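As the next step, I selected for study a record pairing a protein sequence with its backbone structure tokens, which the following lines show:
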Amino acid sequence: MAPAHPQFVLYNTLERRAEPVNPADPEAVTVYSCGPTVYDDAHIGNFRSFLAADVLRRWLESPLCTLTDDAGRAHAGPRQVTHVMNITDVGHMTDDSSADGGGEDKMELAARRLQESKKAGTAHATADIDPTDPKQIADFYTARFAADARALGLKVALQASDDPTLLPRATDAVPGMIAMIGKLIDRGHAYAVGETGAQTVYFDVQSFPDYGSLSGNTLERLKSGAGGRVESSHQAEKKHPADFLLWKTDPTHKMKWDSPWGSGYPGWHIECTAMSLERLAEPIGRHDIDIHTGGEDNIFPHHECEHAQSCGLTGHSTFARHWMHARFLQVEGEKMSKSTGNFFTARDLFAKGHSPAAVRFELIKTHYRANANFTEQSLTDAAKRLERWRTALRACDDANGPGDRADDARAEFAAAMADDLNVAGAIAAVDRLRSRIASGEIEAGSDTAQTLRDFDAVLGVVELGGGSGPTEMEVAVFADGVEPDAAIDARLIERRDAKKAKDFAKADAIRDELAGMGLAILDRPGGKVEVRRS
């Protein structure tokens, strides 16, 4: 019988301490992650947060992970995990540090940037999209994000190919948001201001005494505008300076919907409440989710507001049983910035020849609650380390007999991961096992291989592949000297999906677009598409 493994403990931002993960049902855990705003390609700082959530999800699914129920009974894995990550394609404003969501909608910013790109013939200039249409822009960047995410092994993106509801889009959830805002008004947690048909709706923070509990803010501090978090231009119509936007009537906005308050758009925060509750809680008769993840920049105002409105909506004091936040990523010891030249998207690194496996390894190796430093040299080192791990796995696969199950290594790996996702400790356990296999200290065989695969099912790096980007993991096969290009792969994924939906006009248009770039495509058996010079 396999030894029992320690209870999984995870830092809970709301309680400011590490606590046992205690889901409502230890056999079926729900996880919600704040995903990308699809107005540009996701950068590696974004992916650090997304990959931290992916490692969490993989660990929860592992046979090595033990959880307890409300009665304190232990439940060993494996278990079902339903992980949902939203796609924000409306309502996220450029001044997202403000509870008002001030500034410009990021989708409109993207539209203007792409229009300028078309005129200048620079980045994305050849993309077959109307730069004045936010939906087309969202579709374009959503496809690119999905391709990058699948390349990096995010299981939620891999599964969303078959179940798109796992990557819900804000624009599809607006009717639910409108209904929720109405309920918040009815329950005294929100109010509308302005003339009928042209109203703005705010959440009343004074109606929720626990507002500030997640971030550590107080209403008195927020009233004074501490930290520059309160948008002064909207204060006259509010009951309290910290009241935050639920609905904005604006007939000039490019993306707008009819509502009881006028034609407009939702605030950013209400989006995640709608998508998390509608997809994870309501279908199983619950008012809460088990774990909510995001980057530390989401804590305030986004998650603070989301927590308040969700509890106000359900009438319960709990919305997420556990809040997990990943810290920021530095690059070459400095804050990532386009002006300093150290700003990278995932596909920037793929284009330089770095494998998705090495990029993933580099982004997960540092504890999620520590600031990580990303360097290109470390990517090269990661690739070498991963090849040593692959060599060990091949040796186990090639050996005769079961070999050694290495229960001591399994216990070491499990203890590290159970301790607040100590990935560095888990990596050290893999390194030690690899060394013992290489030295002959333990007998390699099928059971040893299974132990390595159980470890990699959590880390997601050894069998991810060693190629140079999403193209290896997805549709395109490049030939005739054509350089691998993740953007082309993303377009071929769109073409594949269009053909499945019998939208042959769109599929043909993508083929014509590639032909205009001097490329010919040939469909291969198994869903791959060969890309050659025409």
